[in-house]
Amino acid sequence: MSGQIPGPKRPEVTTRIIELLDKQNEKGIAKYGSTIDQAADQYYDWKLMAMEEMVDLIQYQQKEIMRLERLLNPI
């Protein structure tokens, strides 16, 4: 047995998020040679990095909204 507590099946949304986290961690290790836990805090401004990621997120969301609008309202 894997040591996991038996219980209800994990929701698909949760499973996909965990898979995405695993992929991102693999990319980070390939790019930086370490996990985020091993990253030296003095070399990173975590607040600024988070803010930059949020700005990217806003752009991605807007782009997706525009794509969906084009699909729903073709000219």
How are the SSEs ordered, and which strands pair?
Blueprint: H1 12-32, H2 46-72
Report what the structure shows.
With 75 residues, the chain is mainly alpha-helical. 64% of the residues lie in helices and 0% in strands. It contains 2 helices and no strands. It has helices at 12-32, 46-72. The protein is flat. The N and C termini lie far apart (57 Å).
List keywords for this structure.
mainly alpha, 2 helices, flat, 75 residues
**Average pLDDT, to the nearest integer?**
92
Shape: flat
Give the count of helical stretches: 2
What's the helical proportion of residues? Answer: 55-70%
Helices and strands, in N-to-C order? HH
Characterize the main sheet: none
Strand elements, count: 0
Radius of gyration: 18 Å
Q: Extract low-pLDDT stretches.
A: none
Structural class: mainly alpha
The amount of beta strand, in percent, is under 5%
Terminal-residue CA separation: 57 Å
The gist of it:
64% of the residues lie in helices and 0% in strands. With 75 residues, it is mostly helical.
